[in-house]
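Example S7 (structure tokens).
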């Protein structure tokens, strides 16, 4: 495809932005394979003498397998419950008819704009009273429903042809049957992409786990990264970059595999009313 002269500057600007965004990732990956001396002396993205010593030290210093399991358990639990509550709520807002439905929907969506700092202290007090502080369940519990997911799933469900639902109603199919056999199969790409977004957001979360988790054995990957930087005074750069690389590996792989579904979901949600 030919690039017009007037478009060349925009392509160049886009390339610069992409390089600015991808450079930290390349720097982390490259530095994790360097020795301590090379990390401080060489700015090159290609290690002169690649080594796995930083990764070996990660597994020696922290219980990495347990921390990885904690992070995966929290992200998986949050993702499953957010999808479940989102699907049921979206179905109710689209296919049920009840008084003040529009008002309730907009009240629900307005919670997206409430800052985390507003709910942080009430959530912490509640969890401390029921004994879930310093627990991975305490990290997951306040995140089991999400208004953004309900909004996106509702937009997708509104695109389902109503004759399908009317035929199911004539056949006296229950709402559970309609949801399971008609709605979920049609919106499966949206469920997959929204689930990936939920998983990545939970995987990368730092502030709320830092407030709830106290014991090293219950740490998530983001907390382990900060713990290592603090304990080493930020001087063991290769090890720090090794932890950062391991932390971002799974989310990047998930996004690379499912990016077309994620982009398509947001595009569709903007088109449908």
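Recovered sequence:
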């Amino acid at each position: 495809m030919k690039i017009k002269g007037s478009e060349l500057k925009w392509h160049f600007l886009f390339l610069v932005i992409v390089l600015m965004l991808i450079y930290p990732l390349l720097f982390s990956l490259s530095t994790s394979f360097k020795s301590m001396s090379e990390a401080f002396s060489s700015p090159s993205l290609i290690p002169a003498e690649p080594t796995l010593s930083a990764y070996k030290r990660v597994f020696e210093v922290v219980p990495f397998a347990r921390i990885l399991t904690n992070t995966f358990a929290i992200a998986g639990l949050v993702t499953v419950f957010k999808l479940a509550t989102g699907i049921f709520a979206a179905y109710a807002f689209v296919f049920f008819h009840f008084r003040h439905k529009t008002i309730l929907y907009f009240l629900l969506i307005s919670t997206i704009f409430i800052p985390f700092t507003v709910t942080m202290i009430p959530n912490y007090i509640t969890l401390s009273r029921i004994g879930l502080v310093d627990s991975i369940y305490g990290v997951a519990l306040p995140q089991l429903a999400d208004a953004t997911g309900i909004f996106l799933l509702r937009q997708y469900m509104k695109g389902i042809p109503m004759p399908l639902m009317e035929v199911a109603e004539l056949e006296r199919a229950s709402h559970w049957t309609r949801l399971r056999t008609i709605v979920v199969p049609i919106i499966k790409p949206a469920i997959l992409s929204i689930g990936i977004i939920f998983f990545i957001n939970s995987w990368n979360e730092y502030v709320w786990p830092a407030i709830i988790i106290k014991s090293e054995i219950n740490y998530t990957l983001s907390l382990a990264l900060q713990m290592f930087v603090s304990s080493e005074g930020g001087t063991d750069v290769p090890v720090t970059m090794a932890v950062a690389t391991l932390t971002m590996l799974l989310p990047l792989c998930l996004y690379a595999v499912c990016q077309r579904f994620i982009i398509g979901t947001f595009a569709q949600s903007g088109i449908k009313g």
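Notes on this example. The chain has two domains: 1-51, 55-271.
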